[in-house]
């Protein structure tokens, strides 16, 4: 029996990295009975069947797991947005941050294409990132002419996931960090102002102190696992004041003497974030019950 980490999964074949190389393995039927399956990032035990293959017998306990994209044992998620092409959407950024928080994973905000932004756009983005820094987020603003070894590489300890909508530069970032990868990238669709989905599967790429995961691009996010009562936990600035609300289970929507509503009058940034919170709260509240 050998132990290793799943670094790639394609059509039922799991590439498991061990101390003595990579094995292409398959999962035993027992996982179907347990209604689970191995996931990229899992530490697994497998029975060797030949020199390069085997069958997975056991999945070690996971620290966490993302459902979309399917990756486990994540240390941080870098939420990648672009300054231009497509332009940064703060509402979309906040939606990504909520999803990351909901899995109890620390997000980092990375804005790309700094070199393509005008001076005015750069100033606005720097101001916005400073606002996020003030509520506890780690932020990065990079362009194609920046040295990623000084900005991205220091973050890669454990498993780091790159996430964000298509066309924001995730694959380009991977290609710059791993020169021999040549991950396919597509230009922005002018009609949709977004990139085509170029990454087809989840894969971990090893660096000195960890792994960087390239994940399929997407612009629609799944909130089906989030309850509206929990949403307030995923806005750090609310966390600091919500104990001052009159009602212990305040949702910060219609309740009187709400400390969050007082907070949002302090800065426009808070008000914008609150509006995104309300929109998401209503979206979750109005979703159809699944049976």
Written account of the structure:
Helix content is 25%, strand content 25%. The chain is α/β, with parallel strands linked by helices and 291 residues long. It has three domains: 2-61, OB fold (Dihydrolipoamide Acetyltransferase, E2P) (Beta Barrel); 66-214, 3-Layer(aba) Sandwich (Rossmann fold), CATH 3.40.50; 228-285, Ribonucleotide Reductase Protein R1, domain 1, CATH 1.10.40. The strands form three sheets. It has a six-stranded mixed sheet with strand order 10-9-8-11-13-12, sandwiched between helices. Strands 1-2-3-5-4 form a five-stranded mixed beta barrel. It has a two-stranded antiparallel ribbon with strand order 6-7. The radius of gyration is 21 Å and the shape is globular. 32% of the residues are buried.
Keywords:
291 residues, alpha/beta, OB fold (Dihydrolipoamide Acetyltransferase, E2P), Ribonucleotide Reductase Protein R1, domain 1, six-stranded mixed beta sheet, five-stranded mixed beta barrel, 8 helices, globular, GTP-binding, zinc, NA-bd_OB-fold, cytoplasm, GTP binding
Our measurement of the CA-to-CA distance between the termini, rounded to an integer number of angstroms, reads: 41 Å
The biggest beta sheet reads: 6 strands, mixed
The overall average pLDDT, rounded, is 86
- How many structural domains in the coordinates? 3
In CATH terms, the superfamily of the largest domain is: P-loop containing nucleotide triphosphate hydrolases
CATH top level class name of the largest domain = Alpha Beta
Strand arrangement within the widest β-sheet reads: 10-9-8-11-13-12
- Percent helix: 10-25%
Shape: globular
Strand content: 15-25%
Q: Identify low-pLDDT runs.
A: 186-199
Order of helices and strands: EEEHEEEEEHEHEHEHEEHHH
């Amino acid at each position: 029996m050998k132990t290793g980490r799943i670094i790639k999964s394609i059509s039922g074949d799991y590439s498991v990295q061990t101390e003595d190389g990579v094995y292409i393995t398959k999962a035993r039927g027992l996982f179907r009975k347990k209604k689970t399956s191995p996931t990229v990032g899992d530490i697994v035990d497998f029975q060797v069947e030949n020199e390069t293959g085997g069958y997975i017998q056991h999945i070690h306990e996971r620290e966490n797991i993302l459902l979309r994209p399917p990756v486990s044992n994540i240390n941080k998620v870098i939420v990648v947005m672009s300054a231009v092409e497509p332009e940064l959407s703060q509402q979309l950024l906040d939606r990504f941050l909520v999803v990351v928080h909901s899995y109890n994973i620390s997000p980092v905000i990375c804005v790309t294409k700094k070199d393509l932004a005008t001076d005015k756009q750069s100033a606005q983005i720097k101001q916005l990132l400073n606002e996020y820094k003030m509520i506890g987020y780690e932020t990065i603003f990079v362009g194609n002419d920046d040295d990623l070894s000084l900005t991205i590489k220091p973050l890669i300890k454990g498993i780091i996931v790159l996430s964000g909508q298509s066309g924001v530069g995730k694959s380009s970032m991977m290609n710059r960090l791993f020169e021999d990868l040549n991950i396919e990238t597509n230009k922005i669709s002018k009609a949709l102002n977004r990139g085509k989905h170029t990454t087809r599967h989840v894969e971990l790429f090893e660096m000195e102190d960890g792994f960087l995961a390239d994940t399929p691009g997407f612009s629609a996010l799944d909130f089906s696992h989030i309850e509206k009562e929990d949403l307030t936990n995923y806005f750090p600035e609310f966390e600091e004041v919500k104990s001052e609300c009159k009602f212990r289970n305040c949702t910060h929507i219609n309740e009187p003497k709400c400390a969050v509503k007082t907070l949002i009058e302090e800065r426009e940034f808070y008000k914008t974030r609150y509006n995104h919170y309300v929109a998401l709260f209503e979206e979750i509240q109005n979703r159809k019950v699944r049976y």
